[in-house]
Design a protein that fits this description.
Length: about 375
Protein backbone atom coordinates (compact mmCIF):
# COMPACT_ATOMS: atom_id res chain seq x y z
CA UNK A 1 0.00 0.00 0.00
CA UNK A 2 1.12 3.57 -0.68
CA UNK A 3 0.72 6.48 1.72
CA UNK A 4 -1.18 9.32 0.03
CA UNK A 5 -0.27 12.60 1.72
CA UNK A 6 -1.31 16.24 1.59
CA UNK A 7 1.85 16.94 -0.40
CA UNK A 8 0.76 14.40 -3.03
CA UNK A 9 -2.60 16.13 -3.22
CA UNK A 10 -0.97 19.54 -3.68
CA UNK A 11 1.22 18.17 -6.48
CA UNK A 12 -1.80 16.79 -8.32
CA UNK A 13 -3.72 20.04 -7.87
CA UNK A 14 -0.81 22.08 -9.25
CA UNK A 15 -0.57 20.05 -12.46
CA UNK A 16 -2.48 21.66 -15.32
CA UNK A 17 -2.13 20.98 -19.03
CA UNK A 18 -4.31 20.06 -21.98
CA UNK A 19 -4.46 16.29 -21.43
CA UNK A 20 -4.64 15.04 -17.84
CA UNK A 21 -5.93 11.49 -17.38
CA UNK A 22 -7.33 10.39 -14.01
CA UNK A 23 -8.21 6.72 -13.53
CA UNK A 24 -9.86 5.12 -10.52
CA UNK A 25 -10.87 1.51 -9.90
CA UNK A 26 -11.48 -0.94 -7.06
CA UNK A 27 -8.80 -3.58 -6.52
CA UNK A 28 -8.61 -6.78 -4.52
CA UNK A 29 -6.00 -8.29 -2.23
CA UNK A 30 -7.01 -11.92 -2.70
CA UNK A 31 -9.63 -14.18 -4.24
CA UNK A 32 -10.83 -14.74 -7.81
CA UNK A 33 -11.48 -11.00 -8.29
CA UNK A 34 -7.70 -10.45 -8.47
CA UNK A 35 -7.76 -12.15 -11.89
CA UNK A 36 -10.38 -9.68 -13.13
CA UNK A 37 -8.58 -6.51 -12.03
CA UNK A 38 -6.13 -6.43 -15.00
CA UNK A 39 -9.05 -6.84 -17.42
CA UNK A 40 -10.97 -3.96 -15.85
CA UNK A 41 -7.83 -1.83 -15.91
CA UNK A 42 -7.26 -2.58 -19.60
CA UNK A 43 -10.83 -1.54 -20.39
CA UNK A 44 -10.37 1.73 -18.51
CA UNK A 45 -7.22 2.46 -20.51
CA UNK A 46 -9.21 1.87 -23.71
CA UNK A 47 -11.77 4.43 -22.55
CA UNK A 48 -8.99 6.88 -21.66
CA UNK A 49 -7.52 6.50 -25.15
CA UNK A 50 -10.92 7.06 -26.79
CA UNK A 51 -11.52 10.20 -24.70
CA UNK A 52 -8.06 11.55 -25.55
CA UNK A 53 -8.72 11.08 -29.26
CA UNK A 54 -12.17 12.69 -28.96
CA UNK A 55 -10.53 15.74 -27.37
CA UNK A 56 -8.07 16.10 -30.26
CA UNK A 57 -5.03 13.98 -29.46
CA UNK A 58 -3.75 11.82 -32.33
CA UNK A 59 -4.06 8.06 -31.82
CA UNK A 60 -0.29 7.31 -31.80
CA UNK A 61 0.26 10.12 -29.27
CA UNK A 62 -2.46 8.71 -27.04
CA UNK A 63 -0.85 5.26 -27.26
CA UNK A 64 2.51 6.74 -26.29
CA UNK A 65 0.98 8.65 -23.37
CA UNK A 66 -0.60 5.47 -22.00
CA UNK A 67 2.32 3.15 -22.76
CA UNK A 68 3.78 3.02 -19.24
CA UNK A 69 0.43 2.37 -17.52
CA UNK A 70 -0.28 -0.32 -20.12
CA UNK A 71 3.08 -1.97 -19.44
CA UNK A 72 2.56 -1.95 -15.68
CA UNK A 73 -0.96 -3.30 -16.08
CA UNK A 74 0.42 -6.30 -17.98
CA UNK A 75 2.70 -7.24 -15.08
CA UNK A 76 1.04 -9.92 -12.92
CA UNK A 77 3.21 -8.98 -9.92
CA UNK A 78 1.69 -5.50 -9.92
CA UNK A 79 -1.74 -6.96 -9.23
CA UNK A 80 -0.50 -9.15 -6.39
CA UNK A 81 0.42 -6.13 -4.29
CA UNK A 82 -2.79 -4.12 -4.21
CA UNK A 83 -4.90 -2.57 -1.51
CA UNK A 84 -8.61 -1.69 -1.88
CA UNK A 85 -8.34 0.90 -4.63
CA UNK A 86 -6.05 2.12 -7.40
CA UNK A 87 -5.76 5.78 -8.44
CA UNK A 88 -3.59 6.61 -11.44
CA UNK A 89 -2.72 9.97 -12.99
CA UNK A 90 -1.16 10.36 -16.44
CA UNK A 91 -0.17 13.43 -18.44
CA UNK A 92 2.67 14.23 -20.84
CA UNK A 93 5.89 13.70 -18.84
CA UNK A 94 3.88 12.85 -15.70
CA UNK A 95 2.74 9.54 -14.24
CA UNK A 96 1.82 8.57 -10.69
CA UNK A 97 -0.26 5.82 -9.12
CA UNK A 98 -1.42 5.12 -5.57
CA UNK A 99 -2.63 1.83 -4.05
CA UNK A 100 -4.82 2.95 -1.18
CA UNK A 101 -7.14 1.45 1.47
CA UNK A 102 -10.25 2.90 -0.16
CA UNK A 103 -12.38 1.30 -2.83
CA UNK A 104 -13.32 3.47 -5.82
CA UNK A 105 -15.99 3.14 -8.45
CA UNK A 106 -14.53 2.58 -11.92
CA UNK A 107 -13.98 5.97 -13.53
CA UNK A 108 -11.84 7.72 -16.13
CA UNK A 109 -11.64 11.49 -16.48
CA UNK A 110 -9.70 13.42 -19.15
CA UNK A 111 -9.39 17.18 -18.85
CA UNK A 112 -7.08 20.07 -18.09
CA UNK A 113 -6.80 19.06 -14.41
CA UNK A 114 -6.54 15.80 -12.54
CA UNK A 115 -9.66 14.64 -10.71
CA UNK A 116 -8.88 14.69 -6.99
CA UNK A 117 -12.20 14.43 -5.13
CA UNK A 118 -12.17 10.60 -4.85
CA UNK A 119 -8.91 10.95 -2.91
CA UNK A 120 -10.09 13.63 -0.49
CA UNK A 121 -11.35 11.11 2.10
CA UNK A 122 -7.75 9.89 2.32
CA UNK A 123 -6.76 13.34 3.55
CA UNK A 124 -9.85 14.41 5.50
CA UNK A 125 -12.84 12.37 6.60
CA UNK A 126 -14.01 8.81 5.91
CA UNK A 127 -12.47 7.63 9.14
CA UNK A 128 -8.90 7.62 7.82
CA UNK A 129 -6.33 7.00 10.54
CA UNK A 130 -2.93 5.48 11.23
CA UNK A 131 -2.09 2.70 13.63
CA UNK A 132 1.45 2.32 14.97
CA UNK A 133 2.07 -1.14 16.43
CA UNK A 134 4.94 -0.88 18.88
CA UNK A 135 7.19 -3.59 20.22
CA UNK A 136 10.90 -3.95 20.81
CA UNK A 137 11.02 -6.76 18.26
CA UNK A 138 9.24 -5.13 15.33
CA UNK A 139 7.61 -1.89 14.33
CA UNK A 140 4.58 -1.84 12.02
CA UNK A 141 2.67 1.11 10.59
CA UNK A 142 -0.84 0.67 9.21
CA UNK A 143 -3.22 3.01 7.42
CA UNK A 144 -6.85 2.39 8.24
CA UNK A 145 -10.33 3.47 7.26
CA UNK A 146 -13.73 2.52 8.60
CA UNK A 147 -13.52 -0.57 6.37
CA UNK A 148 -10.00 -1.95 6.58
CA UNK A 149 -6.46 -1.79 7.91
CA UNK A 150 -3.49 -2.09 5.54
CA UNK A 151 0.22 -2.28 6.31
CA UNK A 152 2.30 0.61 4.98
CA UNK A 153 5.13 -1.01 3.06
CA UNK A 154 7.54 1.92 2.79
CA UNK A 155 8.05 3.41 6.26
CA UNK A 156 10.87 5.71 5.23
CA UNK A 157 13.54 6.27 7.86
CA UNK A 158 11.72 4.56 10.70
CA UNK A 159 13.85 1.80 12.33
CA UNK A 160 12.56 -1.74 12.03
CA UNK A 161 13.02 -2.59 15.72
CA UNK A 162 14.97 -1.65 18.84
CA UNK A 163 18.13 -3.47 17.80
CA UNK A 164 18.08 -1.70 14.43
CA UNK A 165 17.74 1.70 16.15
CA UNK A 166 20.59 1.11 18.59
CA UNK A 167 22.89 -0.34 15.93
CA UNK A 168 23.12 3.01 14.21
CA UNK A 169 22.44 5.38 17.06
CA UNK A 170 24.12 4.09 20.25
CA UNK A 171 27.29 6.10 20.90
CA UNK A 172 28.23 4.18 24.06
CA UNK A 173 30.31 1.08 23.30
CA UNK A 174 29.96 -0.18 26.86
CA UNK A 175 26.18 -0.37 26.52
CA UNK A 176 25.16 -2.83 23.86
CA UNK A 177 22.00 -4.62 22.91
CA UNK A 178 21.36 -7.78 21.05
CA UNK A 179 18.33 -9.80 20.12
CA UNK A 180 18.40 -12.97 22.13
CA UNK A 181 16.60 -16.24 21.89
CA UNK A 182 12.81 -16.21 21.91
CA UNK A 183 11.36 -15.73 25.37
CA UNK A 184 7.89 -15.61 26.81
CA UNK A 185 7.05 -12.60 24.65
CA UNK A 186 7.19 -14.65 21.44
CA UNK A 187 10.02 -13.37 19.25
CA UNK A 188 13.52 -12.45 20.32
CA UNK A 189 13.74 -10.28 23.41
CA UNK A 190 16.00 -7.23 23.60
CA UNK A 191 18.74 -8.05 26.15
CA UNK A 192 20.74 -5.22 27.71
CA UNK A 193 24.08 -5.37 29.43
CA UNK A 194 26.45 -2.66 30.62
CA UNK A 195 26.86 -0.48 33.67
CA UNK A 196 24.24 0.80 36.07
CA UNK A 197 20.57 0.01 36.54
CA UNK A 198 19.50 -2.26 33.66
CA UNK A 199 15.85 -1.13 33.80
CA UNK A 200 16.82 2.52 33.52
CA UNK A 201 19.19 1.72 30.69
CA UNK A 202 16.42 -0.20 28.96
CA UNK A 203 13.99 2.71 29.30
CA UNK A 204 16.60 5.14 27.95
CA UNK A 205 17.22 2.92 24.94
CA UNK A 206 13.51 2.47 24.29
CA UNK A 207 12.97 6.23 24.51
CA UNK A 208 15.76 6.82 21.99
CA UNK A 209 14.26 4.12 19.76
CA UNK A 210 10.88 5.86 19.86
CA UNK A 211 12.48 9.26 19.19
CA UNK A 212 13.92 7.81 15.97
CA UNK A 213 10.52 6.31 15.14
CA UNK A 214 8.84 9.68 15.76
CA UNK A 215 11.39 11.48 13.60
CA UNK A 216 10.79 9.11 10.68
CA UNK A 217 7.01 9.11 11.18
CA UNK A 218 6.78 12.91 11.30
CA UNK A 219 8.75 13.10 8.07
CA UNK A 220 6.60 10.41 6.42
CA UNK A 221 3.31 12.03 7.47
CA UNK A 222 4.34 15.64 6.94
CA UNK A 223 1.24 17.79 6.46
CA UNK A 224 -1.11 14.95 7.36
CA UNK A 225 -3.95 15.43 9.84
CA UNK A 226 -5.13 11.86 10.31
CA UNK A 227 -5.37 10.57 13.89
CA UNK A 228 -2.67 8.19 15.08
CA UNK A 229 -3.48 5.28 17.40
CA UNK A 230 -0.81 3.37 19.30
CA UNK A 231 -0.86 -0.35 20.02
CA UNK A 232 1.58 -1.85 22.50
CA UNK A 233 2.12 -3.30 25.95
CA UNK A 234 1.32 -0.99 28.84
CA UNK A 235 4.81 0.21 29.70
CA UNK A 236 5.68 1.17 26.08
CA UNK A 237 2.77 3.52 25.40
CA UNK A 238 3.72 6.29 27.89
CA UNK A 239 7.33 6.15 26.72
CA UNK A 240 6.20 6.74 23.14
CA UNK A 241 3.96 9.63 24.25
CA UNK A 242 7.07 11.19 25.77
CA UNK A 243 8.91 10.93 22.43
CA UNK A 244 5.99 11.92 20.21
CA UNK A 245 5.82 15.14 18.19
CA UNK A 246 3.03 14.14 15.74
CA UNK A 247 0.20 16.53 16.71
CA UNK A 248 -2.69 14.13 16.03
CA UNK A 249 -1.76 11.29 18.37
CA UNK A 250 -4.82 10.04 20.28
CA UNK A 251 -4.34 9.65 24.01
CA UNK A 252 -6.19 6.36 24.22
CA UNK A 253 -4.32 3.36 22.83
CA UNK A 254 -4.66 -0.38 22.30
CA UNK A 255 -3.09 -2.25 25.21
CA UNK A 256 -1.42 -5.62 24.72
CA UNK A 257 1.24 -7.17 22.53
CA UNK A 258 0.34 -6.21 18.92
CA UNK A 259 2.67 -8.92 17.56
CA UNK A 260 0.05 -11.44 18.67
CA UNK A 261 -2.91 -9.66 17.06
CA UNK A 262 -4.21 -10.07 13.51
CA UNK A 263 -4.79 -6.95 11.39
CA UNK A 264 -8.52 -7.63 11.64
CA UNK A 265 -8.45 -7.56 15.43
CA UNK A 266 -6.25 -4.46 15.48
CA UNK A 267 -8.65 -2.74 13.09
CA UNK A 268 -11.67 -3.53 15.24
CA UNK A 269 -9.99 -2.20 18.38
CA UNK A 270 -8.65 0.92 16.64
CA UNK A 271 -12.02 1.74 15.09
CA UNK A 272 -13.65 1.72 18.52
CA UNK A 273 -11.20 4.47 19.49
CA UNK A 274 -11.32 6.68 16.38
CA UNK A 275 -14.97 6.43 15.33
CA UNK A 276 -16.24 8.81 18.05
CA UNK A 277 -13.56 11.32 17.01
CA UNK A 278 -14.80 11.37 13.41
CA UNK A 279 -18.48 11.45 14.31
CA UNK A 280 -17.92 14.43 16.60
CA UNK A 281 -15.99 16.26 13.87
CA UNK A 282 -18.75 15.78 11.27
CA UNK A 283 -21.48 16.85 13.69
CA UNK A 284 -19.54 19.97 14.65
CA UNK A 285 -19.17 21.06 11.01
CA UNK A 286 -22.85 20.43 10.24
CA UNK A 287 -23.94 22.27 13.37
CA UNK A 288 -21.98 25.32 12.20
CA UNK A 289 -23.56 25.09 8.75
CA UNK A 290 -27.11 24.99 10.14
CA UNK A 291 -26.39 27.85 12.54
CA UNK A 292 -25.32 30.06 9.61
CA UNK A 293 -28.08 28.95 7.21
CA UNK A 294 -30.16 31.93 6.02
CA UNK A 295 -27.44 34.50 6.80
CA UNK A 296 -25.93 34.53 3.30
CA UNK A 297 -22.84 32.75 4.58
CA UNK A 298 -23.84 29.30 3.32
CA UNK A 299 -24.85 27.69 0.04
CA UNK A 300 -25.86 24.30 -1.32
CA UNK A 301 -25.84 25.41 -4.98
CA UNK A 302 -22.81 24.24 -6.95
CA UNK A 303 -23.28 27.05 -9.52
CA UNK A 304 -22.79 29.58 -6.72
CA UNK A 305 -20.14 27.67 -4.83
CA UNK A 306 -17.63 27.18 -7.69
CA UNK A 307 -17.09 30.92 -8.43
CA UNK A 308 -17.14 31.69 -4.71
CA UNK A 309 -14.42 29.10 -4.13
CA UNK A 310 -12.41 30.45 -7.09
CA UNK A 311 -12.42 33.89 -5.47
CA UNK A 312 -11.42 32.64 -2.02
CA UNK A 313 -14.78 33.11 -0.30
CA UNK A 314 -15.19 29.48 0.85
CA UNK A 315 -13.94 28.75 4.34
CA UNK A 316 -15.29 25.19 4.68
CA UNK A 317 -16.55 22.88 1.94
CA UNK A 318 -18.48 19.71 2.68
CA UNK A 319 -18.76 17.25 -0.21
CA UNK A 320 -20.57 13.94 -0.45
CA UNK A 321 -18.44 10.89 -1.10
CA UNK A 322 -19.11 9.55 -4.59
CA UNK A 323 -21.15 12.56 -5.77
CA UNK A 324 -20.37 14.21 -9.13
CA UNK A 325 -21.81 17.26 -10.89
CA UNK A 326 -20.45 17.52 -14.44
CA UNK A 327 -20.10 20.73 -16.37
CA UNK A 328 -17.60 23.50 -16.99
CA UNK A 329 -16.49 26.78 -15.47
CA UNK A 330 -15.77 30.06 -17.26
CA UNK A 331 -13.33 32.02 -15.06
CA UNK A 332 -13.72 35.22 -17.11
CA UNK A 333 -17.47 35.26 -16.56
CA UNK A 334 -17.20 33.62 -13.10
CA UNK A 335 -19.92 31.27 -14.27
CA UNK A 336 -20.40 27.54 -13.69
CA UNK A 337 -22.58 25.60 -16.14
CA UNK A 338 -24.02 22.21 -15.23
CA UNK A 339 -24.58 19.53 -17.90
CA UNK A 340 -27.24 16.85 -17.63
CA UNK A 341 -24.62 14.13 -18.23
CA UNK A 342 -20.85 13.96 -18.42
CA UNK A 343 -19.45 14.97 -21.81
CA UNK A 344 -15.84 14.80 -23.09
CA UNK A 345 -13.92 17.73 -21.67
CA UNK A 346 -16.34 18.27 -18.77
CA UNK A 347 -15.06 18.77 -15.26
CA UNK A 348 -16.57 17.54 -12.04
CA UNK A 349 -17.68 20.86 -10.56
CA UNK A 350 -17.61 19.43 -7.03
CA UNK A 351 -14.00 18.46 -7.64
CA UNK A 352 -13.23 21.91 -9.07
CA UNK A 353 -14.79 23.65 -6.07
CA UNK A 354 -12.64 21.45 -3.84
CA UNK A 355 -9.47 22.42 -5.72
CA UNK A 356 -10.29 26.13 -5.56
CA UNK A 357 -11.10 25.92 -1.85
CA UNK A 358 -7.84 24.18 -1.02
CA UNK A 359 -5.83 26.56 -3.20
CA UNK A 360 -7.28 29.46 -1.21
CA UNK A 361 -6.45 27.88 2.20
CA UNK A 362 -9.97 26.67 2.85
CA UNK A 363 -10.89 23.31 4.35
CA UNK A 364 -12.57 20.45 2.46
CA UNK A 365 -14.25 17.48 4.12
CA UNK A 366 -15.64 14.45 2.31
CA UNK A 367 -18.45 12.94 4.36
CA UNK A 368 -21.15 10.27 3.87
CA UNK A 369 -23.85 11.32 1.35
CA UNK A 370 -26.68 10.96 3.85
CA UNK A 371 -25.08 13.66 6.03
CA UNK A 372 -25.00 16.33 3.30
CA UNK A 373 -27.88 18.86 3.19
CA UNK A 374 -29.33 19.77 -0.19
CA UNK A 375 -29.53 17.73 -3.38
CA UNK A 376 -26.21 18.30 -5.18
CA UNK A 377 -23.83 16.70 -2.72
CA UNK A 378 -22.02 19.92 -1.82
CA UNK A 379 -22.44 22.70 0.74
CA UNK A 380 -20.21 25.64 1.60
CA UNK A 381 -19.62 27.94 4.54
CA UNK A 382 -18.39 31.32 3.34
CA UNK A 383 -15.80 33.62 4.90
CA UNK A 384 -17.83 36.68 3.92
Amino acid sequence: MDVFTSEDLRNLMAHEEEYCVSLFMPTHRAGPEVQQDPIRFKNLLKKARADLVTLGMRGPEADELLSEPREVGADSMFWRHQSDGLAMFVAPNYWRYYRVPRSFGEMVSVGERFLIKPLLPLITGDGRFYLLALSQNQLRLFQGSRYSLTAVEDTGRMPENLADALQYDDPEPQLQSRVGAPGRGGRGQAIFHGHGDASEEAKTDILRYFELVDRGLTELLSGDHAPLVLAGVDYLLPIYHEANSYPHLIEEGIHGNPDRESPERLHAKAWEIVQPVFLAEVEKMLERYYELAGTGLTSDNVREIVPAAAHGRVDTLLVAEGAHVWGHYDPDMARAVVDDAAEPGDEDLIDLASVFTLENSGVVHAIPPDKIPGEEGIVAIYRY
